[in-house]
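Holo model, adenosine-5'-triphosphate. Inputs:
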Amino acid sequence: MPHIPLPPQVLRALGEDSRAPTGLGVDGFMTPPSVAATPFDGDPFSSSAPADASLPPTPGVVDAAPSAPEPAAAGTSPSPPQQDNGAVSLDWARPSGPVDPRTYSAVTGLRDIEAFMCEDGEAGKGAYGSVRRAREKGPDGKPIGPELVVKYVIKQRILADCWKKHKILGPIPIEVHVLDHLRRVPYEPRPRLNYLSRRSGGAGGARKGPPGAHVRRDSAPQLDLWHGGKDGAPVQTGHPNVCPLLDFWEDAHYYYLVMPSATAEPTHGAQPRHGQDLFDFVDAHPDGLGPAPLQRILAQIADAVCFLHEHSIVHRDIKDENVVLDPEGNVRLIDFGSAAYVKEGRKFDTFSGTLDFAAPEVLKGARYSGKEQDIWALGVLGYVLICGECPFWSPDEAMQGLGPDTRALAALRAKARLDDGADEAAPRMSDAVDLVRRCLEIDAAERPSADAVCDHAFFVGRADGWSGSRGWERRDEGL
Ligand SMILES: Nc1ncnc2c1ncn2[C@@H]1O[C@H](COP(=O)(O)OP(=O)(O)OP(=O)(O)O)[C@@H](O)[C@H]1O
Ligand SMILES: [Mg+2]
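Output:
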């Protein structure tokens, strides 16, 4: 049968018919209600570009301004000349910064897949398409610029509720919408103990306290991206642990998303591979990680999740395959294909994430809050990194959580005992275990917020951080 691509509008109208198999209903998992419902119908996150904004360069932002030419690598042609044609820059070595949505190739038509040299082998494959390593094609047909990935998303497999209308770009996959939006979200590094200081600081100003006390930070700093921050200084946007979108376009069959390659070229032979996704990393550490590398990885993911939640975005598919590591061990969260915008009090009734990482309320088919699901998934991921395997081997086990007689709890306790005799100042496995247990509370209301997760003793030390069931509350009372 010939393949007839459907435009997004038609897919939206088709609703149920356009659903990809979600994996729900297999292996004994219950099937939650399948009525498509995006919990937030408003569109507060559409581009903040003023209607009369001219094409880049946009004043005062760390924008897509082309970088100085790179030194030519042996056998390759020099970097491309400055792009004064309105195309977005693919040079991700510099902060990518906000872009005018009208400069994506989807609008300009300046790039399509012919503009890239893609490797034959896949860097990754998922339910909705595949990912290939690529570099831009220079004028002489040779590869130029940094290593990128191109994610091909099969249009027909995008779920009906995974589309969102963008003010400028029209209906686009939520993955593109969220990643484009994040390019305009101001980023300030999260202060240590943000959660505690915010709680005690009240609605307004900074908490009074001794010198050096942690001060409250506004979750959404008032920065004018189009004219710069204080004194017109550039504004950093996005999150360093979230893989940015550089460019995108579509054809009849696919959406093509261009992103930095978070991993270096695969190496061959006996040499270790530099950079990989966390799934492969766990495979290479079947007995789990030690507390120090675990802390480094998990803290970066928690910080990224906190940033998303602060800005009313949920990922909904946090798992080891959706985290990539660069050669220095820096983490990038990827794959926003299941992401969504959330609004206080509204719940989801569909789930397209991964069942091994699904919270009990999702498995029961109940309506669920995206943030609590993300925290559960973070707990599962933490367990996987500690023990080298999944905590729950069936939906029934997941619904029991870390109950007193469970295999998963016994495994965690055994890991926590490894602390005996360990350096007091070093990250402690028993703290990591406590954090995972808090995230894997069966009752979603008992799980910490992402903000509180970042202030757990495993990340900030026992003197400042909290631990134990609802420990963040006791911590607050003690201040
Ligand atoms: N920016 C990147 N750098 C390096 N590797 C990547 C990058 N993006 C994706 N990959 C690799 O490709 C795999 C698949 O990518 P991704 O998770 O985005 O697609 P997917 O699972 O098909 O997505 P979806 O859930 O939307 O179907 C990842 O697990 C990872 O190994
Ligand atoms: Mg994926």
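The CA atoms of residues 175 and 336 lie 5 Å apart. Residues 1-82, 200-226, 266-274 have pLDDT under 50 and may be disordered.
Archived with the compound record.
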